[in-house]
């Protein structure tokens, strides 16, 4: 014989078992969140352009918007541009940079002179004098002292792996102090041609 469901029985049930419904709702929320995270479209590496900048005061939103404007004008086939901040003055900053490098993250890095020299000869960055000499010529014409980006690789060969950004005073508008920073392109980037195109736009538009 079935027990009839009454208002009192329902109230008693919810009084002692309410937590089961809360737990079920929470589990459903996390399951849906995981589902959408897994199935969400992600642009392939060759259609992304990521930059990491050692500038704690960088206006990340404004700088990413500027990158997006250049993307729309110069390389609209790229689906996603992003700029991340490296907090190198923080205790975890050097570890964060090392992790990104080891994981093959990022296309362009803007680093302090010390961080640049730490990685320049280790194979982390492309030798610009070999891979993109036209970019070096353009940066030199803009007033960048490109020879300062010279470092010896593991075989003792000297190459230029980046250049100082001091002449690009327009970076100050985005909270990036160019007087102490070097720009380099990660060796292994899946989108080196657009990394070069973005750098050229920086040289064209941010000299003041």
Provide a short characterization of the protein structure:
The protein has 208 residues and is of the alpha/beta class. It is 45% helix and 14% strand. The chain has helices spanning 7-39, 60-74, 93-103, 113-120, 128-131, 133-141, 192-205; strands spanning 48-53, 80-85, 108-112, 150-152, 158-160, 163-164, 181-185.
Describe this structure in words.
- By secondary structure, the chain is an alpha/beta fold.
- It is built from 7 helices and 7 strands, in the order αβαβαβαααββββα.
- It has helices at 7-39, 60-74, 93-103, 113-120, 128-131, 133-141, 192-205; strands at 48-53, 80-85, 108-112, 150-152, 158-160, 163-164, 181-185.
- A 5-stranded mixed beta sheet has the order 2-1-3-7-6. A two-stranded antiparallel sheet has the order 4-5.
- A hairpin with a 5-residue loop joins β4 (150-152) and β5.
- α2 crosses α7.
- The chain starts with 6 loop residues before the first helix and ends with a helix.
